[in-house]
Amino acid sequence: MAHEAVLRKTVPVGGKNDSYCPNSVMLLPDRPITFGRIISPDVSVRLTSKTAPLMISRRHATVSVSAGKWTIVDHESLNGVFINRNRIQPSIPHLLEPGDRVVFGVGVNSNTPEFEYVFEHIARGRKRCADSSLLSNKDSSVKQRKIFRESGGYVMVPFGTDHPAVHEAISVAEEKIQKLKASLEEKEKCHADVVLQLEKTEKELQTKLLDQKATLEKEKHELEGALKTLFAEKLMEKEEQLNQELKSQKESLIEEKKLVEMQLQEELKKQLEEKDKQLENQLTQQKEALEQVIAEKEARQNMLHIELENYKASQARMQDLEANERKMESTLQELRQIVESKNKELLKQQEETKRVEEVARKTVIEQMEDEFSCIICQDLFINSTTLPCAHSFCEYCLMSWLQKKNNCPICRQPIVGRPVRSLVLDNAIAKMVESMDEETKTRRQTVTQEREELKRAASTAMPGSREHPITLNDAEGQQGESNTVTQAMVQNTMRHMRPAREPRGRQAQEHRPAVHQRNNYGNQRYYENRYHGNHGSNGGGGAGYRYSGSDYERQPYQHNYMHGLPGTYYPGYGHCHLCGMRGHWAPGCPLSH
C-alpha cells in the first residue's frame, strides 16, 4: 500500500504576476490526480501560466498509484513532463521516487520553469498512547471526564460532582468564544471590503480587455487583407509552375510509353528466353522511374501541406490547393495502374514461357523413351547391348533371351558374333533420366541394382566364371538350384517392371486401366513361360540357345503353345510379347481380351 505523498513547489507563488498554481499538491492513493489547463471534471489540479498560456496542455499529466508505487503518465502534452531534467515518454507510466524533481512544461527564454515540484512522502503521525493510570482503572464503575485548566494541564473530574474547576473552565471557554466572535466579525468586514475591491478591479480589467480586443480586431482585419493579397500572388505563381511541370511530365510519360511499346513489338519477334530477360529489365527500369516520379510527387505534396499549414487563415485558397491535390492523386493513380498492367503482362509472359518449355521437355522425353526402350522388358535400356544386326537390348534381357534362342528378338536373324555394349546409348539415357521426376529416377535405380544382384546370383549359382551364365535345362542335379534362382529373378523383375507404353489421345486415355492390367498380366506370363516352362524336357516344339561366352550352344527346350483368337494373323513363328506363348501374336492374344 502506497503512503500519502505531496508535490511541493520549489519556488512558491508570492505575487499577482505569478502563475496560477498551488504551492503544494496533496496526493492520495485512492484517487489519481490529473494536471491540466482547463476547468473540467477530468482535471483535478489546474495550472495556468502567465508568460505562455499554452505552456500546459488541456490534460497534461496524471499522478496515480500503480502496483503500490507512485507513477506519472504524460498524456502526449505539447511541452512534455520532465523528471530530473529528463523528458519522459508519453503514454508510458514512469516511477516516482522521493526527492524527484517534476517539471510540467519548459522554461521560457532559458529561465527557470514555472511549474517545478519536488515529490515527497508524508510520514504518518504516531497515535498518542493513553495514560497508564487510565488503562489500569479502565474497568472502574466511576465515570470521569477531562477538564482543561488555564495553566495548561488536565484534571480528571468524576461526572455528577460540582467542582470549582468545572466552573472555572466554563468561564474561560465563554471568554474565548466572545473573543472569537469579535475577530470573526472583523474578518467578515475585511472580506466584504476585499470583495468590493475585487469587483472594482474586475470591472476595470474588463474595460481594458474590451479595448484590447477592439484594437486586436482592427489589426487582425488589416493583417488578413495583407495576407490574402500576398497569398493570392504566391498561389498564382505556384499554380503556373505546377501546370508546367504536369505538362512536361505528361509529355515525357507519353514518349516513354511509345518507346516501350516499340521495344515490346520488336522483342516479340525474338526467342522466348531473350524476350523474358529484356522485358524484366525494361519493366524494372520503368517501375523504378515511376516510383521515383511518385516519390517526387509525394514530396511535392508534403511540401504543399507544410506551406498550407502556415496559411490556415485563408480558407478559400485552401480549397484551390485541395483541388490541385486531387488532380495529383488522380495522376498518381493512373501511373500506378500503368505499373500494375505492366506487371500483369510480365507474369503472363513468364507463365506462357514455362508452359511451352514444360510441353517441349515432356515431348522430347516421350520421344526419347520410345526410341530408347528395350522390346523385351518394355523399359529404358539398362546396360544397353547391341547385336551385329544393329538392334539393341538390355544386357540382362539379352542374356535371358540367348538362353533359349540364338536369333534376334526383333528381326529373327541368327546371331553371328558377340554382342557389344553401347556406351553412347547408356550416356544418352542417363542424361534423359536426369530430367525426369524423382519417382522415375528411384525406380530405375532400384531396377538396376536388382539386375546387378540377379547377375551376381546367377554367376554364383552355377560353377565356372562369368562366361558361363545360368542355363534353364541343366542336369537334374543342378535343376533345383537353377529353378530357385530363376524364380527369384522373375519375381524381382516383375515387381519393378514398368507397365507397357500407355497410348496417347483421348480414346486411349479412356481405356488406360484395362490396357495397363492386360500388359502386366501379359508380361507376367511372358516371364513365367520363359523361365519356368518345361526346363528339362524335349517333348516338342522348337529349340533354343544359351550364351556361353565364346560361342552359342544349341540346346532343345519346349515352348507352351496356344492358338490365337479366330481371324487374327499368325505366320507360324515367333511368340506373343504379352503372354509369352507361341501360336499367336499380341493382336490375337486370348488372354488380353
Automatic annotation (TrEMBL):
Keyword Coiled coil listed: yes
PROSITE patterns: FHA_DOMAIN, ZF_RING_1, ZF_RING_2
Basic and acidic residues compositional bias, start-end: 499-513
Classification via Pfam families: FHA (PF00498), zf-C3HC4_2 (PF13923)
Occurrences of domain FHA (ranges): 33-88
One of the GO BP terms on file: double-strand break repair
Gene Ontology MF annotations: histone binding; ubiquitin protein ligase activity; zinc ion binding
Keyword Signal included in the entry's annotation: no
Coiled coil: 170-359
Segments of this protein annotated with the region Disordered: 436-482, 498-521
Keywords: Coiled coil, Metal-binding, Transferase, Ubl conjugation pathway, Zinc, Zinc-finger
InterPro entries in alphabetical order: FHA_dom, SMAD_FHA_dom_sf, Znf_RING, Znf_RING/FYVE/PHD, Znf_RING_CS
GO cellular component labels: cytosol; nucleus; site of double-strand break; ubiquitin ligase complex
Sequence ranges assigned to domain RING-type in this UniProt record: 374-412
Record-linked PANTHER family: E3 UBIQUITIN-PROTEIN LIGASE RNF8
Similarity-based family: Belongs to the CHFR family.
Protein name: E3 ubiquitin-protein ligase CHFR
Organism: Pocillopora damicornis (Cauliflower coral)
